[in-house]
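Sequence in, structure out. First:
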Amino acid sequence: MGARPALDRQDLKILSILQAEGRITNQALADRVALSPSACLARVRRLEAEGLILGYHARLDVERIRPTVTVYGEVTLKSHRPADLLVFEAALAEIPEVVEAAQVSGPFDYLIKAVTPDIRAWGELADRLLQEGLGVDKIASHILMKEAKPYRGTPVTPSST
């Protein structure tokens, strides 16, 4: 996490619009932020080069593509040594069904989000995590019933500091 780059209101507006509308044309974006197309494109390229824009993604309705079960797993490890955490995180990175993972504070160590074809496949994945020498002590599973508020982006507002 390097130094925080200086961002003006136009940069923040560009980031906010791109986060909501990743396929917007440069011309439309320039119009919305009151810049010339060339100045707008230069800003977008700078924001990309500075690592503030990490990528552009399509949000899929995976339920319409194939059957799925989404599970949030609370994972508790036996050890909290940095090397053990890295081994676990490296293993997660190799499991395509684990679509998100975060190390958290509190009564468990990681919150993972897995998308599997069915509950049986989740059970097999959980068993693998428990059995593969990754130092997993326990996993508490929570099945997604409904997305009450899907992720739509993070608020991008000027900092008060």
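Second:
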Amino acid sequence: MAPNARGALTALLAFAIFATHDVVVKTLGAQYSAFQIVFFSVLFGFPLAMLMLIRDGTPGTLRPVHPWWTLARTAAAVTTGVCAFYAFSVLPLAQTYAILFSAPLLVTVFSIPILGERVRLRRWSAVIVGLCGVLVVLRPGGTELGLGHLAALLAAISSSLASVIVRKIGREERSIVLLLYPMLAQFLVMGAALPFVYQPMPVGHVGLSAAMAAMAFLAAALMIEAYRHGEAVIVAPMQYSQIIWASIYGMIFFAEVPTRSTLLGAGLVVASGLYIVLREGRAQSSNNTPVLRTRSRFETGTFPRVGALLRLRRADTGGPAPRAGAE
């Protein structure tokens, strides 16, 4: 099988698992606070993360080189985790994904002040079309907007900010710092909130929380393999397959039928995101490739970031760098 085909198929499997993970989030969200779900997701994810982190033989400390940027990124990841989990709990799956998929468009916007990226007319046009697609999904004035819609928008914004900050500091920060800080912050912040929102969980729901953590790490491991074999310009667009899984899962498990506005808006957002990803895959189209480089999954701080795991694996094996922008 050709490397790009293998990378694409592996990424499709990874995103199918991520979508299944989000079904569990929505199932648990019907009974528990997002703070509680995030806490247990991180709690069960920590042992798996530690197994990955102890492989980092790079000398140094856990003190970040850029403490303020690291703090901003960590805060953004914590915000993304809570907001995304809450949005999945209260909104239809397809609608939530349609809003979250605006993140690559917002990354392009944030890359201007943070990375000094120059965005020309074509990419600006794609951003505007994509954001119009978000408005089509939200239908302001035509539907009642609630906290779930606000949470999804905040998740897209904070995820975009976290991604751009990683582009800015990622070459100088140790991978273990990029991996550990968001998870540790989620554990501490959610743990502090837990006494105020905690609801007793039966064994079955505790098991679902553990399964959710396992699925996140399995999907992350598959994404590493996808980027090892395929070019980022091929692998990254596979993330949009989640909207298909969201529609199927929504109908099967939650009796959700995507509305025409959701499908139309999602189509505009996905088309715009694909254009930006494919354009950044062209030589000399961008100095920073702000969208393409680590485009895999919005960062929630509940499982390690794929780009940092790729760097750890490369350092551990002494192998060549991942192909075309996969850091």
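Remark: Residues 3-317 form one domain.
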